[in-house]
Every structure is written in structure tokens, then in C-alpha cells.
Amino acid sequence: MNLKFEARVWKFPDNINTDLIIPSGSIYLSAAEQAKLAFKANRPGWVDEMRPGDIIIAGKNFGMGSSRPASRSLKMLGVACVIAESINGLFFRNCINYAFPAMECPGVMALFTEGEIARVNFHDGTINNVTRGQPLRAKILPTKLLDLLQAGGIYPLLEQKGIIEPQI
Amino acid sequence: MGMTITEKILARKSAQAKVSPGDLVTVGVDTVVFVDTMFVPTRWRKINKLDHPERVVVVLDHRAPVPDRQGAATHQIARAFVEQFGIQRFHDIGYDQGISHQVVADNAYALPGSLLVCSDSHTGSAGVFNCLARGVGVPDVFYAATLGETWFIVGETIRYEMSGKLPRAVTMKDAFLQIAGQYGDHTNTNVEYGGSALAHLSISARKTLTTMSTELSADFAIFDPDEIMCEWIRARRKDEFECFYPDTDAVYKAVRQVDLGALQPLVAFPDSVVENSQPVAAAAGTRIDQAFVGSCANGTLEDLALAAEVVRGRRVDKKVRFIVTPASQAVYRAASEAGIITTLANAGAVVTNATCGACGGTHMGVLGVNETCITSSTRNFKGRMGETSARIFMGSPATVAASAIRGVITDPREFLQ
Ligand code: SF4
């Protein structure tokens, strides 16, 4: 998995919770159906406007709330990665485990206006506003977690060991 | 330099002399709790090998008994899993039913100094027992249950020194709302609770705070151990355990004082639990359609007793649905024996069986378009309890019960002098 991205950014404010990404009551839907409901309550229509490969830039405490697989929905939509001022610890685990790249970068909200182009490199933690030519440095993920991310998350790992069965 | 409680337990569990903020540690896991949302057909992966089946607990709680066919299929997968590995600690519909975090408390599944994970975000609840407990993702639970370990990035710790005694009609939910309102989120940070106030705080009262710490986005939430805690555990389990205290020279990101005696009833306004608290007076008079007492944060015997005290001899407003959901059947039975359920029912409350119910917004109290609810549960996010246009205020069980009687958001001190 290549962890370098260059794409248009969408901005989301502080304290975006998991119920906004996967609404309550959609628990029995398939991952693809669930993904279509992302941000329906706070930003209706966004799932149709965004394009695979786009990047989300967010405020602090992104992904607060439940353990539901909200990162899986963003990945399913084709979001390239999330860069936030800070990320809820449980949401972050789900990002690594479902192989959806996410990184914390204080100051990132001020670096971008929505629609500008970001260049993000998870290996060296650099973030650039390509539109304006301004750089910033994020907190680099520990090597072990970068490896897990690149290996496709937890499920392929457990499947290879024969410990769990592939999804039915 | 010393360590906080969280750092000490993480050091022990990763077989290191010392861990510090920023470290990535691999730790052994003592208890893995599977809740019913794990077994949803589109999420479940059949497991071929468990590390230690005796370390597993299975609890059917979110929608129990199931309201629909998908729920039925989900619970069937859970029962097959329990059967496959001969899991003893299984909480199916019936006598042992309850919300996982209450079940863990009722049975003292979380021992001091141990490490417990579960794919429910409010798992930090068990921190009340000086246990390192944390909600993790569904894949994490598969990993921990099959390989016996997991990883954490060690965060800094904020310590809350609590003093004083809660005034009448003020609860630990109000203490939480005070902290969440004043300090906002605690992302990437652990919280540690202690201080002289503990002498006056029951396990149930403390547990509201550890459970709600999830809403602070705290990593781990943990209490200092004390005799009240040890007695609770000894009454339920014979196992030996070791308590963990912070080192006297532990390094904290901050140490904050909370005088419980100076608190007042608060509410969180709709859509966010953090940075959103106000004195009840700011919302007083707001018309409500539903009032809910329940959840892993406020469905204990004490919570039900407090609600009953408020409504005793009164009637719930005709336009309000007052739903009370005990956090476990053990709580239900105790409330029944104490006459609490009769008091609530006589006032017009609907007392349900133990389950997550209205808290999760999928059964037994789903909110309709533009409705307003006051809840004592864990979350007031947009759409959390039903329609996205519904407004959810959050308060203590006393505030919820007082509001149910008046039909508008009401300060409980009107009823509890
Ligand atoms: S009561 Fe609510 S917060 Fe607690 S486990 Fe159930 S759904 Fe989650």
C-alpha cells in the first residue's frame, strides 16, 4: 500500500462523532450500504459530491464516540486518508485495523481551505498545501502501525494464520 | 520519575520496568468481552482458535431480547460461538442478562491491575475497579481473543483530585458534565480519579464517571483503589488481586481539583457531550416528549432509586413517555425487591427489561421527527436515539425524572430538598 497521496481536501469541524459517519440503526446494512450514509445528518449529499481519492482534513477529536467501523465506511467511499488536529484513540485503532490511513497534525485546519490540493506522505509525516505551497509536519506513526496499515490491517493477518475465516 | 496507575499496569502487562508517554507497548490481555454487536452477520468472522476460552465473556445486550430477524440471526451466531468453545461466562437473555459494563461490575469480572478489552466504546467503565479497561474495535477483539495480546500507545495522564460531598439532587453525572463542559475532550490522554471524596462515593456513582470518560475521548479511565472497591470485589469473587496506586512522583499532564460539594445539576445541550454543559436553569421550561433513565452510565440500582424518589406519589406528565431501563437483570431484581419498580410504574414510568434499548436508538424508545428527549444515558449525538431532527438533552437521573413529571426540563432540586 502506497502511503503518499495528492488530492482535493474536504474540511470537517471539531468533534466529528462516529454516529455521524455510521448512523445508529444501520448496523445490519452491508459495509457498502453503510458507507452511503456517511455524514447524512450533518452534511447531506456529501457522499455524492466527494470523489474517490479525496482527502479529509478535520479538527480536533475526530471520530469520537462508538467502536462501530466508521473508518471502514470512509475507506469504502474511497477517501484516501484523514488528517486531523487530533483523533479519538478508538477511531484511530479502527483506522489502522481496517487499513485506512489516518494521522494527527496540529495546525492542519489552518493550512487548508476546502477544495485546495494537499500532498500527504505518511512515511515522513510531511503535509503540503500544494495550492499555496505551504508545508507542515505531522506526527509520524510508529513503524509497527505503519506496517500493519500497509499489510491491509488485522483481518488479512489473522486469516493468513488460519485463526479466523474470511468474511462469508 | 514515577508512573501513573495506567503506566504502572501497562508496564506490568508488557513486562517492562517502565513505560512513558509516547511508547508503543504490546500487552497481554486478561479478559476479552464479546458483546452482541460483534456477531452481526456482516461483521462476524468465524474463529478457529481461541487463546484462552476461559478469559472470554459473552454478553447479549444491545438489542435484547431481539426486536427483529437480523437480531435473531446475530444472537444465534453468538450462541454457536459460545457452544463451539464451551464458554462459561455467557450472559444470554434471562437471569444473567444485562449491559456488558454492568454485567462486568455485577460479577466483578474486572480485577485490579488486570487488562480488559471489549468492542464497546464504554468499556472504560471497568476502570472503577482499578482495572485497565478500554473499548477497542471489532478487529481488535478478534486479535486479542485469538492471540492473547494487543497494543497501545501510552498517553499522558490527567489526574482529577475530588474532594467534598455531592449536595442533594446532584450526582456524578453532574460531576462529569462539569468536567466535560469545563475542560472539553481528553483525546490521547488517560484520566485518573482519586481524592478524599472517594470515601463518600459508591461504586455505582464512580462508575458513571469512568463510563462517561469515553465521551471525553479519554484513552484509559481509572480510579485509585480503596476499601469500598475491594469489598465490592471480595463479595463477588474469591480470586486474589493486587491494587495499583500512582507513584508519589508520578508525572501528570495536569492535576485538577474538583470540589463535589460545589456542584449543581447540569444538562448537556443537544448534539455534543463536550463543551456543551449548562446549569439546568438554562434549559428549564423546554418541552419534552420522552425522558429516559438507563444505559451503562446510569442504569444502576442507585439511579433507579433516585428516579423513584423524585416521582414517588406523583404522575408523569401526560405528554411524556418516561422509559426506565435497568442496566442488568440483577439491578432489575434488586429494584423490584426494594419496591422501586412499583413506585416508578405507579407514577406512569414504563420499566423495561435490562438492555441498551433507547440509548442506542434502535429499540424500546426510538425518537420521532422533531421530538425532544432528556436522557441520562451516554450520548446526545445527532440521530443517536432515532430521527436526526430529534433533540437530545442529557442530565442526571434526578433531572430526567423531575422533567418527566413536569413535562418540561426541570431542576431536580424542586423535588429533592
Ligand atoms: S447502554 Fe448505550 S452506551 Fe452503554 S453499551 Fe449500550 S448502547 Fe453503548
Q: What would you note in describing this structure?
A:
The complex is a heterodimer of chains A (168) and B (417). Chain A has 8 helices and 7 strands. Chain A is an alpha/beta fold and 168 residues long. Chain A has one domain: Aconitase, domain 4 (Alpha-Beta Barrel), CATH 3.20.19. Chain A has a 7-stranded mixed β-sheet. In chain A, β6 and β7 (134-137) form a beta hairpin. The model of chain A has no long low-confidence stretch (mean pLDDT 96). With 417 residues, chain B is an alpha/beta fold. Chain B has 12 helices and 18 strands. In chain B, α9 (301-311) runs parallel beside α12. The longest helix of chain B has 17 residues, at 69-85. Chain B is globular. Chains A and B meet through α5 and α8 of A and α4 of B. Residues 62, 99, 120, 122, 295-296, 356, 359-360, 377-378 of chain B line the site of iron/sulfur cluster (SF4). Iron/sulfur cluster binds next to α8 of chain B.
Summarize the entry for a quick read:
With 168 residues, chain A is of the alpha/beta class.
